[in-house]
Amino acid sequence: MHMIITDAWMAKTQPIHLSGTKLIAAGLALSLTLMLVALGLYHWVFLKGAREGWPVVGSLVKLVVKDEITQRDRFMRENLDAMAKKVGEMQAKIVQLESLTERVSGLAGVPVPEAAKAAAGKGGALVASRPLDMQELQAILSELEAVSNQKVDLLTVVESRLFDQKIRKMMVPTAEPVPGSRLGSAFGFRIDPINGGSALHTGLDFQADSGTPILAAAGGVVVTQDYHAAYGNMVEVDHGNDLVTRYAHASAVFVKKGDLVKRGQKIAAVGSTGRSTGPHLHFEVLVQGVPQDPQKFLTAGEKVEEVAEVAKTRSKTKSR
Q1: Does residue 159 fall inside a structural domain?
Q2: Ordered alpha helix ranges (H), the chain
Q3: Are 238 and 221 in contact (CB under 8 A)?
Q4: SS3 letters for 270-298?
Q5: Is residue 301 in some structural domain?
Q6: In terms of domains, do 143 and 236 share one?
Q7: pTM value?
């Protein structure tokens, strides 16, 4: 494209050559300039009209602002409703936790403080409802936090008590030292198998083949591992609180004095050493050095296992 510019005063002409690329660039630049000017004018007029309250512009601003506020309120309402639903679920869980805490505390023998007990029952017909606001939700969350902190503290105490009870249970000789064996002579007076006279039998005899494992009836410390003229190869385990178990006539012993043994640990093997007429385990329980009937301890252990099994079965039934 060719353009000629003539200057009448100076009587001169100036030719200008515009290619297609230059024309497009010039058009774009002009369009962009016009758009910026129009946008600036629109912004200036809109702000001025909004500030001074021009009828048309003011109404338009109010509509835009009202729509934004409506959308923001709807968004907040949806979020508050979702939070309220979660809070309701948390309250239901807290109620279940309160019931569980009372049951577990009863089993552990830990009294539940009045402040930590389940809240009084509430109910009635639902007449009307309204959505909760932020302040109400915050108050409920603060209350739930306080209740949960109380439950954590109480359950920590219960856990400690149950752990202590478990340790004590593991230290009481309630497990059979030769599981599945046949019981021979019981505790008490009997006819002595060697001299035929009346004598006090201070323990239980478990009939088993020579070499059958002898297990610790409870956890403790080995205080004696020696050969005794009457008891033969003998092991004594101290369980604390002046409670000692004795295992006699063993063919072999697998622990030594000072060893820590666990409940159910193999400590010896059945034999017929010492004053014995055949392979068996002579098992004694001594409290402050006085022989007690071991059967009472073993029977108590069986009852505990039965109660635990019943509780386990009930728990499985409820979970289904």
Answers
A1: yes
A2: 20-52, 55-108, 134-170, 294-319
A3: yes
A4: CECCCCCCCCEEEEEEEECCEEECHHHHH
A5: no
A6: no
A7: 0.52
- CA dist., res. 73 & res. 65, Å (int): 12
Specify the DSSP class assigned to residue 8: T
Tens-digit pLDDT profile for residues 247-302? 999 999 999 999 999 999 999 999 999 999 999 999 999 999 999 999 998 888 77
Which 3 state secondary structure label does DSSP give 110? coil
CA pair distance 175, 117, nearest whole angstrom: 38
Q: CB count, 10 Å around CB of 205?
A: 23
- Are 224 and 244 a contacting pair, CB within 8 Å? no
Q: 250 and 269 in contact (C-beta within 8 Å)?
A: yes
User: In angstroms, rounded to a whole number, what is the distance separating the alpha carbons of residues 292 and 215?
Assistant: 19
Residue 262, domain extent: 182-294
Contacts of 208 (CB under 8 A, 6+ apart): 178, 181, 182, 270, 279, 280, 281
Q: How many CB atoms lie within 10 A of CB 33?
A: 10
First-to-last alpha carbon distance for the chain, in angstroms, is 90
